[in-house]
Amino acid sequence: MVRYILGRLGRALITIFLVLSIVFLLMRLLPVDGYFEGRTDLMSDTVKNVILKDLGLLDPWYKQLFDFWRKLLLEGDLGKSIVIRKNVPVARLIWPKAMVSFEFGIIALAIQQLVGLTAGVLMARHKGRLADKLGNLYILLINALPAAVYFLAIQLYLSSVLKLPMLYDPINTSSRILPIICLSLGGIASNAMWMRRYMVDQMNMDYIRLARAKGMTSGQVAFRHVMRNAFIPMAQSLPTAVLFTISGSLYVESLFSIPGLGGLLIQSIQRQDNTMVQAMVLLYSVISISGLLLGDIAMMICDPRIKLTKKGESR
Amino acid sequence: MSEYKFTEPVLTVKDLVVKFNLRGQVLTAIRGISMDLYKGESLAIVGESGSGKSVFTKTFMGLLDNNGWIDSGAIEYGGYDLTAFKTERDWLKLRGKRIAMVFQDPMTSLNPLKTVGKQVQEAFTLHNKVSKEEARRRTIQLLDDVGIPEPERRYKQYPHEFSGGMRQRVVIAIAMACVPEILICDEPTTALDVTIQAQILELLKQLQARYGLTVIYITHDLGVVANVADRIAVMYAGDIIEIGRSEEVFYDPRHPYTWALLSSLPQLGVKGEDLLAIQGTPPNLFQEIRGDAFAPRNPQALKADFVARPPYFEVSPTHKARTWLLDPRAPDLAPPAHIRHLRTLRRGGIEHAT
Amino acid sequence: MKIDRQPYRPFFRRFKDYKLDKMQQAFRDAEQADPAEISDDLFEFAGHDIMDAERIGYSNYSYWRSTFQVFFKKKVSVFLLAFLVALLAFTFIQPLLPNQKDPYRVYNDEAGKTLMNVQPNEEFWFGTNNIGQDIWSRIWSGTRTSLFIGLCVAMSNNIIGIVLGSIWGYARKWDKLFTEVYNLFDNIPYTVLRMLLMYIMRPSLKTMIIVMVLTGWIGMSKYIRNLILIYRDREFNLASRCLGTPSRRIIIKNILPQLISVIMLQTALAIPEAIGAEVFLTYIGLGLPVSIPSLGNLINEGRRVMLVASQRYQLLYPVLVVSAITISFYALGNAFADASDPRNHR
Prior knowledge:
Strand content of chain C: under 5%
Number of helices of chain B: 13
Distance between the termini of chain B: 12 Å
CATH class of the domain at 137-344 in chain C: Mainly Alpha
Largest sheet of chain C: none
Strand order of the largest sheet of chain B: 6-7-8-3-9-10-12-11
CATH architecture of the domain at 137-344 in chain C: Orthogonal Bundle
Shape of chain B: globular
Radius of gyration of chain B: 21 Å
Largest interface: B-C, 42 and 40 residues
Largest sheet of chain B: 8 strands, mixed
Structural class of chain B: alpha/beta
Helix content of chain C: 55-70%
Oligomer: heterotrimer
Structural class of chain C: mainly alpha
Radius of gyration of chain C: 31 Å
Shape of chain C: flat
Order of helices and strands of chain C: HHHHHHHHHHHHH
Number of strands of chain B: 12
Distance between the termini of chain C: 15 Å
């Protein structure tokens, strides 16, 4: 088991290295305007060159890459913001926002799992009947419509119907309700769909027949066997989900003016702060990769069937 | 002929009709079966795939698929009429406790994500209120009874760590957990190697002797039948067309289908001659069947076979068959050479439980 | 539930004895007969041809016919299909109809004042926006643009996906390599990647299509590759080859139907996804320039004025159109996927 974990960890590190390098090099293609606080027309070429040189952007790409890794690993330096807060280290700007996103995200995650999985179970038990049809309709709508549409609808109509504020305000707790609802919708749909499909598949399996022949009620069967089994594949996606709560939903945060990481990313893009954009993309990538790694490890721990040496398979 | 030693009926089926709804069409899987099951015997139900063997026994436990139902008839067991059971609660009085089932494929019968010990123990604790240690102790005892070596260690292992034969033993252990009255084995050895088959059958015979079980074997393998059965019921197209003690059915079969079935055994083939195969395919059960279901495939069918369904004609108190050939007016028809040949093979008789 | 009451007629036609036919009807199924009711002359051999038993009815199953049968059985699908076809037809015919306005033109009234934010009336069926442009024509123009994007993306993804996916699936040597590359790309969240690429390449119609294809082809390739892995070694293909079926027929009869279903499904689902992505990118500011009307742009513009109740129509109509299109495509895609699964054929 240890060998597997080490192997997986190694692969994850290599992936991080490759991905970050690629992203870093991609960022070199960014239009240079992003480094000048947007006031390019007022600067002469010499001034521009000085700034670029200072930032190390005129060096050959391999030197830049090397410097980047050196700075990151040895000094923990991700660069400084250019537009958003001039010359403030990126990390200091990111951290508090990440916490805000996390707060929203974790609550939404909890709701998604609880409501979604319960809904999935109900839909499977009442397959073909009203509960199932309603559930499927909900899933259809969530998947088909662009998120913008129902987020806007919620922001506009639900706020007037339920008398909830439309924008987030740290003091007013009830202002969190609408954003959390928006954040949960997609997750509820996917959890419900997955759980329903899983339960329906398992219900037709032989070992379920045996369990019933033993004398278990279908409720006991559903709970003790099917749902217990369902948690194994879920274990794989859970770490990723948790980690992604930090990144926050770009859309929702922007819509409700929540000062989270997602909003920060959008701001950085809209205001063309290259260092910020670069740092955050790196962060997202690291989050994504670690999530997958942890998920694989979690699954391996929970599933007794996975043995020691599992060759790398694509998901 | 000596008397049949099992005489007390423990389960009685009367004119059972089972239908299924497949995509809007109705299929009659069981077309009116009546039979008695005697306490302590081994009954083998043989037939082709699709003859309704599994469906028939599933009705005893209420395990019919959702799209099937009992259309008419009665099943009497333990003072209950099983066809009147409506809710799952009713069935829970019986399932696992008094009637248990062993399924065909041990690979998929066990939950891969739970330890074997837990699964067997569950069968026990569902019906008995005992402490955890007591349940565990009993489970290990059970695993030992079915012949699993090192039961203590195996208790904690997962199904994928067992071989096929071992897994089937586990399934048998689960079925035996509450020492049921009736044990139904649905093709218990089909998915196993030949060498393991013998072991499993031996185990089942031992358990039957020890606990006085009534066992129903569902199989299409006549070799298994020869090994274990006291009585044989031959099913075709949802009906039992011949039923009798095993030596009667083997050495004195009366229904043309039984002849054909026995004749198609490769062991009975004569070197140099073609192997006998039964022409045609079983009838479409979506349509109503008139007369004898086997008639279209029977080169020696009587006209009456196409007209009306024959009733049971008795050959002996324990042996009857549904064929017009047994009517006194029917022409004398000798069974094919292979069957007569089989009789001569009976030197000391085939060893079986009777 | 119709119960088919067909006795064994085929065998009876062999007999000259039609009396038997009538007699048979006297005995119902599942009722065994009393021997006394059977007359003596019936105890003769029937002498029928048992080879009749071998002649199983030939089944004229046609994959596509069954697919369409199952599909059209659901009234909802039929309705949605008709609706979508009508909607699409209208989208493209609209400019040719009389009295249609130019989506780009700024309309002024007689006094020269720009007709901004006019509520829907007889002249401007969906009203005007805050620049004075006619929303009705902008919506249809935007729909055309968005559909165009969606189709381009879907087609490109399909082509690249099929080509690469097939190579990936068939060439066992390259499977390992491709899989590693895939894993690599899988780790970068595609939303961020899209944003990044749009940021770098500067938003325009062309770049949007390119960006979406760049993030989309991988998914399609993997899907095709999985399908090929499943079907390549399926026994029925092997059996066909052993029987000497020419490869062309194998491909046409076994693989192509599968492929076509997949393509249609993916296309139907890709269009709502493309529209969704476009709306999202536009919202962030990385979408199409405002000069090109697109559904994303329209929704965004509408969003800016949604707080003013009188101007909410500017959001409402684009949202309605987007919803209609995305829901229809998605639902139809799923319905078709269900219908083309042979397990759902009767």
